Hints:
This protein is α/β, with parallel strands linked by helices. The chain has a domain at 362-459: GMP Synthetase, Chain A, domain 3. The chain is built from 12 helices and 23 strands. It has helices at 27-31, 34-55, 57-65, 76-79, 87-96, 131-147, 166-178, 192-203, 212-224, 248-258, 372-379, 415-429; strands spanning 4-5, 11-12, 111-116, 126-130, 155-158, 181-183, 207-210, 236-239, 261-264, 277-278, 286-288, 293-298, 311-318, 327-330, 333-336, 350-351, 355-358, 363-365, 368-370, 389-396, 399-407, 433-438, 453-455. Helix 9 links the parallel strand 7 (207-210) and strand 8 (236-239). Helix 8 (192-203) packs across helix 9 and helix 9 runs parallel beside helix 10 (248-258).
Amino acid sequence: MTGRTAAWPPVYDRAYVPEAGERYWNRARETMSPDERDALVLENIQGLMHWAYARAPFYRSRWQAAGLEPGDIRSLDDFARVPTITKADLRADQAAYPPFGSYLCVEPPDIVRVHGTSGTSGRPTAFAWSADDYATISEAHARIMWSFGVRPSDTVFVGSILSLYVGSWGALAGTERLGATAFPFGAGVPGQTLQAIGWMSQMQPTVFYGTPSYALRLAEAARGEGIDPRSLGLRIMFFSGEPGAGIPTTKALIEETFGVACIDCGSMGEMTPWMHLAECAERTGMHLWQDIVYAELLDPKTWQRVPYGGGGTPVYTHLERRCQPMIRLVSGDYAEWTDAPCACGRTYPRFPRGIAGRIDDMLTVRGENVYPSAIEEVLREFPSCDGEFEIVVTRERHMDELRVRFESTHENDSTDTIARVGAALKRKLGVRAQIEVCPPGSLLRTDLKSRRVRDERSKQ
Length: 460
C-alpha cells in the first residue's frame, strides 16, 4: 500500500503508516527507475502549470512573455524553457499585490496558516499554506523522516524557534503525521538552553531537530552542568538552516559528541516541504526527492542544466502544492550532484556533500573563492578548534586580509597548532589566513542560524 490516490494535486490516505520494520514509506515511488520517475514528474508539472496559469497572473504574464502555454510542456526538456523566478521577484510581487502576491492560487479564506521570512535581507516574504498544503507537507516530511530512521516509537525534540521560521513547524508536522511523539520545545528565549538540557535529561527524547551550531552549543552547556551529552538519550539528530551537518568533520563531531546519527536536510522556506533534500539512514549525502519537489541544477552563469558530476545552483519546482506553488525558483545556493547508487536502494539523485552554501555568501579573497563551510571543515579537523569560530575579512593597504578566530579550551594551545591550522587553511583555500585563538565562550552564540562571517571591506 502506498497511501496515494490518482489525482493532481495528489491525495494521500492519512491513516497509512508502514510497518515499523519496513525500510520505505512508499517502496514503489522511492525505488522506481529514473525514466518512470521522470514520467511522473512531468505529469505533475503539467497539472501544476495548468493550475497556476489559470489562477496566478504572476506566472501567466511571464510565460506569455516567453511565448509559452502549459500545453507546450510535453517533456522535461521543454520545461527548461519555462522562465526561472527569484526571491526578489516574489518580494516585488508581494509589494505590488499585497499581502500574498499575484502568485496566490487559492481564495484567501482557504489559507489556514501564514509563515514567512525574517526580512533581514529585505522586505519579508509571506508564505500562505492551505489546509491541503499542510496535509501535503506533513505527508512528505513523515515519508522523508521515515527514510532516516524515525519511527512511531520515537520522541522528537524540536529545539528550534517556533515562530515565522518554517523549519520547526515542518519538523513538527512530519512528526505528528508519522505518529511519533512530538516535543515542540522551541529555542531563542533567554535561559532556554539550560532548560532544554534539563528537560532532555528528564524526558530522554530519541530524536532532535535544530541547527548544527545550536546542537554544539547544547553540548557545551550540558558539559558546563556536568552532563555528558551522550546521556540525553538521543539516537538521531537532523538539521537544517545551515551547512554544518553536511560538512564531514562537523558531522563527525556531532556524532561523536552525542552518540547519534547526524542527518543533513533542508532547502528553502519557500520550498516547504523543505525536507525534500535529505539524507537517508546511510548518510551518503542528501537525496533529492524529485517526486515531491523537482530539482534542477543550473550553471549560475549560463543558466543551462548541469550534468551529474557537476556543480551549480539548485532550481526548485513544487509538484504537490496548490496555494503558493513555486515553479523554477532559483535557490542561490551551490551544490554538486550525482546519480550514483545509494546503499538504501532509493533511486533519487543526491547532493553527496550537501549544500556548500549560498553563492552570495561566498567570499572572494585575493582572487580565490572561499566558502565559510570550507573553513569550518578544516577547523573541525583539529581538537584544539573545539568551540565557536568567526571569519573576518578586511582590506588593509589595498589588500584583502582573511582572519579566522576560534575558541579553544586547550589552555596551552601551542604556536605549532596555530601554524598547522594556518597551513591547512592555506592548502584548502589557496589563500593565507591570520589565525587568532580566543578564550572559551567569548564568541557570539545563537539559538538560530549561526552568524560567523563579518565582511568589513565595504566599511573601509
